Amino acid sequence: MIQFPSKQAQVQTTIFTKMSALATEYGALNLSQGFPGFDCSEELQALLAFYSKGHNQYAPMAGVPVFKQSIADKTKLFYGIEMDAQKEVTVVSGATEALFCAIHCCVFPGDEVIMFDPSYDAYDPAVRLAGGIPIHLAMDAQKGFQIDWELLARTISPKTRAIMVNTPHNPTGAIWSEEDLNALAEIVKGTNILIISDEVYEHIVFDGKKHYSVLLHPELRKRSFVCGSFGKTYHITGWKIGYCLAPEYLTREFQKLHQWVTFSSATPLQYALSDYLKEPKHYLGLADFYQRKRDLFAAAFAGSRWKLLPSHGSFFQCIDYSEISDELDVDLAVRLTKEIQVASIPISVFYQKPPSDKILRFCFAKNDDILLEAASRLVQL
Question: Which family, according to the similarity comment (predicted)?
Fold first, then answer.
């Protein structure tokens, strides 16, 4: 065997892959990995079938122009923000690629990138591969997973290159407020710090609340890469189509990386989504759709020893099991998958230094009967 050093010796198979594989092995209800348990609309499928004829060669590197314009139009409608479709929009093969390219186009060896734990597990490895240094700041479950702005301000150093933002938040379902945008803007004002904002759940915010994108604050917008995805919005995670919105000077650098990663994304998918985006109801009704599922799932735990934490966005519900078991969350997640056939995700894997919390994350983007059956099995513990 040829020997060579690993560039990511500390990285193992992701928890999502592990738990989904375990769910398959034991025939479990898979509420672990964050993908919808239902198909996309027939209208979108019909558009894909239509554009699969005659649109099967390479798309332009930055995206099909009409699709980029549809993304810009949606941004204007939803946020009231004007985007130059040709200079500030890039189509990518999923938000993970957008995050990777955003990090690699601006992070140099020795640069520090701040992220808030629990943080999505793609952030840290991408920073390390760029030679950067991930700086993890933990959020407190007892305080609603809100960011400690004073701690962030104290953590900023001359080496700080970027700050990772994620709202609505995976895995906790927390969301940012206008005050949060203002606090971040005040901290980065007058610096060269960039913002890499993961906003893939932008249309899944509950209880009449609003998604506060970093695009809405001028100080943040001018220094931000905003990474989005149609996978979560239209129930098409397997299409792997996303986008990056950024000022022209950042977009130029972003596209230099993008051209060497995927170069371009699937052409017929872009045309189909371009047409589908023209009808706002396809994404404006998403929050109500998922709020009904959140509430259905939550109601099934009434009177049990499971303690549901607030879920203000995304399609995840975090639940405290401290009154049920003293097991580590990783151990309990595995045991529940094997013994009662309900798969979840342990929250500790999203921390650099896991706290003592007893919390599991469940995805409620599933059919109602699956949610009710999973809850029924869990409350019997």
Answer: Belongs to the class-I pyridoxal-phosphate-dependent aminotransferase family.
From the CB of residue 305, how many other CB atoms can be counted at a distance below 10 Å? 13
CATH number, domain of 189, equals 3.40.640.10
Tell me the mean pLDDT in the region 156-176: 98
Count of domains observed in the chain: 2
Beta bridge partners of 298: none
**Cβ partners under 8 Å of residue 38, min gap 6:** 235, 366, 367
Q: Is residue 3 part of a domain?
A: no
- Is the previous residue joined to 346 through a cis bond, with omega within 30 degrees of 0? no
Residue in 199, 131, 139 with CA at minimum distance from that of residue 161:
131
**Kindly report the CA angle at 282 between 278 and 288, in degrees rounded to 5?**
150
Alpha carbons 261 and 242: distance in angstroms, whole number: 14
Residue 216 is given by DSSP the state G
> Could you read off the pLDDT of 140-158 as tens digits, one per residue?
999 999 999 999 999 999 9
219 in helix, strand or coil?
helix
Contact 52/44 with Cβ under 8 angstroms?
no
pLDDT bracket for residue 185 (50, 70, 90) = very high
Which of 278, 294, 327 is at the close of a domain?
278
State pLDDT tens for residues 214-236. Answer: 999 999 999 999 999 999 999 99
Report whether pLDDT(285) > 80: yes
- Residues of 319-334 as b/e, b for ≥16 C-beta within 10 angstroms? bbbeebeeeebbebbb
Q: Is the pLDDT of residue 12 over 80?
A: no
Q: 265 with 290, same domain?
A: no
Largest CA distance in the chain: 59
Domain that holds residue 326: 15-40+284-379
Q: Is 369 exposed, middle or buried (0-12, 13-18, 19+ CB in 10 A)?
A: exposed
